[in-house]
Amino acid sequence: MSPQRASLWLLLLLGSSSVSGFVRPARGPAMVTLPPRSGSSLRAGSWQMAASGWQRSFASVLVAASLCLPPTQQAWADGVSFATVDGRSATVEQVLQAKGGPKELSEDDIRGVQQAFLAFDAKQLKTAKALFSKGIEKWVELQRPRDEIVALIMARGNVLVDLKQFDAALTDYDSAIALMEPDGMITETGLARYKEFPNAFVQRGLAWEGKAKWDLAVEDYSKAIDMWGGGRGDGINPYVLTFRGNALTQLGEYGRAVKDYEAASDRFLSMRDKQNAAEARANLALALYEVGQTEEAVKIMKSLVRKAGMADERSVDLHVALASHYFQEGDRSSADQEFNLACYASKTGCSKFYDMDWVQRIRRWPPSLVAPLKGYLGRS
Fold first, then answer.
1. Distance (Å, rounded) from C-alpha 219 to C-alpha 362?
2. Using one digit for the tens of pLDDT, what is the confidence trace for 124-173?
3. pTM of this prediction?
4. Could you read off the pLDDT of 88-124 as tens digits, one per residue?
5. In Å, what is the CA distance from 210 to each residue of 54, 92, 197, 232, 241?
6. Nearest alpha carbon to residue 202 among 23, 63, 16, 82
7. pLDDT for res 308
8. Phi then psi for 369, rounded to 5 degrees?
9. Which of 96-100, 210-214, 227-231, 268-272 has the lowest mean pLDDT?
10. What is the model's pLDDT at position 68?
């Protein structure tokens, strides 16, 4: 297999795999135009990457991105390293300063990476981790272009998040960001030069959430949003607005979360994604309740549970929230009616809501609704 065909196959391989991580909101195929890259066997051009619904795909575009750096821009990479296999590691500096151009990949090299993605798709996470680690070591050894190495490091980071090995995932995301940092952002505007740079901050934000480091998660989500142009309007990924809103609620910043949820809902509706717009509005209702806008919050909850197409578990969530509200208002009859709808008129059922740790930590209900729910269920 020629180097050009090997690299092309790798591009198509990575582009066809579902990689855990950043949720892309594109409806149907998205055309991505890639700049030329020196020292690569890939030719510049346009490649299609489909990403719809909850499909999460990251790696393909990186394999053909333009990432060529002058030596004078490498100072911040000193000391940043990432694991390979058998306790060995490589440094970001080693990748950035590689000389002599990329060496040819063997069919076994490419097959190993293919197997890594297949293992990830099959949720064979330990196998995927081992195969990605082996691939990373080989790619560094062969001095493959930096973007390809970043793609593999990011993919392994996503595997590590699914394994709940958050510290190791953070190390990978730190390394990927350091590798892209020289040219990932346009200095004059502060905007991303290519999409993968802000996406890496989103991935790292999700890893920070795994460690309950909500402030650091908000910081990374905000960095990504700033590189997309800032604010909450067009060009901002609504999923990331939701991620940031969720993290803000954990910091008690419900007012800021309200703005993110409102914007996410509007953005989803503009994309005709009614289900995710409803999810964002459900979170909005809970945040509004906490900031004292009870009437508006209850109005949204009632509207959502009446609409067809609402996810069953979210409908249950809102019925229980309404039960909690009515109990707090002294209307036990309405509270019972809503709670019975949650428990007996749904496939999901209401058993999880007897677990207050789940309600507060996993579902992330605000204190103003948790307290009356405890009272309604007779729990201290």
1. 21
2. 999 999 999 999 999 988 889 888 999 999 999 999 999 999 999 999 99
3. 0.79
4. 777 777 777 777 778 899 999 999 999 999 999 999 9
5. 20, 25, 21, 25, 18
6. 23
7. 59
8. -105, -25
9. 96-100
10. 38
Which of 28, 90, 121, 21 shows the shortest CA–CA distance to 62? 21
- Strand 29-34 and strand 81-83: the pairing is unpaired
Q: How far is CA 157 from CA 34, 52, 79, 271, in A?
A: 24, 22, 19, 29
CB contact at 8 A, 123 and 158: no
Structure tokens at 347: 């496939």
Cα angle for residues 85, 89, 91 (degrees, 5° grid): 145
User: How far apart are the C-alpha atoms of 152 and 376, rounded to whole Å?
Assistant: 50
